[in-house]
Amino acid sequence: MGRDFASNPRQVLSQLGALPRRPGDPLRVSYGHAGFPDPPPGLDTIVYGGPLKYSYLQQHWPHAGRHFDIIYAVSTSHRSDLERIARMAQRRGGKLVWNQNGVAYPAWHGPGWEQSNVPLSKALHAADHVLYQSNFCKLGADRFLGERNGPWEILYNAVDTTRFTPAEVDPAPGQLVLLLAGSHQQSYRLESAARAVEILARQSSDVRLLVTGRLSWTSDPSEATRSAHRLVAECGIADRVEFVGPYLQEDAPAMMRRAHVLLHTQYNDACPSVVIEAMACGLPVVYSHSGGTPELAGDDAGVGVPTELNWEQVVPPEPQALAEAVLQVAERRAQYAEAARQRAVEHFDFQLWLQRHREIFSELLS
User: Fold this and answer.
1) Residue 53 domain-assigned?
2) DSSP-derived 3-state class of residue 302
3) 327 and 234, same domain (yes or no)
4) For strand 29-31 and strand 302-305, is the pairing parallel, antiparallel, or unpaired?
């Protein structure tokens, strides 16, 4: 079906949109991911970010294909021609809900960032309702996509706090295990963490670093892997670092429970799900105080390393400051861990996120 759309978009566009609804009809939701109108990937594949939201939502609203009441799309994983699809569907009574994560800007994207923002801007302004994943997401969108006139709200990412739970026993007694997780698209994320561990190792023999996720800062993954191993060897911490690689979402809670503290070094991360997943597992967070991460961690779930807001260049967190923040958290790890878990349950539980989607969908079709 996705290939049909690419080869004959006009014909397929004519088949899109809402069919007449009768009272009591189930809500029909489609997901405007890159492969639309095919269904998005499920949780049995390695998914993260935007595709993960589709995977969770379609467990409650199965993908309706071409005939839908609502088309739901995430800015990090969508068809580039989504705005055209939405306009055609809206003429037939369909609605577009747009979930806005980060935007392209010079420091993160490099040359060509303006062109990459064009489809985001079109979809954002065409949407019937916009969900910004954090206040930082709205700040970036207003600046680079244009401030929108229609309905919008801040809706943070969510976590299933019944699956992501704290470890029942200490995963590594007598040690301090730091977790560096997520999508490593920039090498500084690992370098900042490795240099911080190098500093900590001079003071303590019990620190370890667990690195999960894909190393993808070069076009050749094997080269990224080789450079990562060279880095930890240069820092003298090769025996303290374990590279796990990508993992299935069903394995994520167990992976989180192997560590004591999440070390989140990404600068200007818009709304990192890995942060709230770690918090739900009782991991305090040491992080770059930038992007949307401070909104997630709040005042009690970890320690942020101060930095500046800069759209023109990346400002990696200083290793010395990261190491000092880790030591601060380690001194009161039990209190930080309890606060992290409590904050995840109270503010970011998946059921709250799901209920807000039900309300929005109902309001749009009323």
Assistant:
1) yes
2) strand
3) yes
4) unpaired
Exposed, middle or buried: residue 110 (CB in 10 Å: 0-12, 13-18, 19+)?
A: exposed
| Residues 224-238: tens digit of each pLDDT | 999 999 999 999 999
Domain assignment of residue 47, given as a range: 2-158+349-365
Residue numbers of the chain with a pLDDT score lower than 50: 1-4, 7
Q: Which of 87, 293, 278 is nearest to 164 (CA)?
A: 278
Contact 271, 136 (CB under 8 A): yes
Contact partners, residue 106, CB within 8 Å, separation at least 6: 113, 311, 312, 313
> Both 358 and 318 in a single domain?
no
Q: Count how many Cα atoms sit within 13 Å of the Cα of residue 309 in the half-sphere of its side chain.
A: 8
pTM of the model: 0.92
User: How many domains, the chain?
Assistant: 2
φ/ψ region of 236 (left if φ > 0, alpha if ψ in -120 to 50, else beta) reads left
Residue 151 has which token pair?
């309905």
The token pair that represents 72 in the structure block = 């739901």
Which tokens go with 220? 């050749």
Do 357 and 307 belong together in one domain?
A: no
Q: Are residues 91 and 221 in the same domain?
A: no
Two tokens, residue 241: 């670092």
CATH number reported for the structural domain that contains residue 284 in this entry: 3.40.50.2000
- 21 lies in a domain? yes
Residue 65 token pair: 């294909």
Distance CA 171, CA 156 (A): 29
Q: pLDDT by residue (tens digit) across 27-54?
A: 999 999 999 999 988 766 655 666 788 9
Cα 36 to the center of its chain, rounded Å: 21
- Residue 125 has a pLDDT of 98
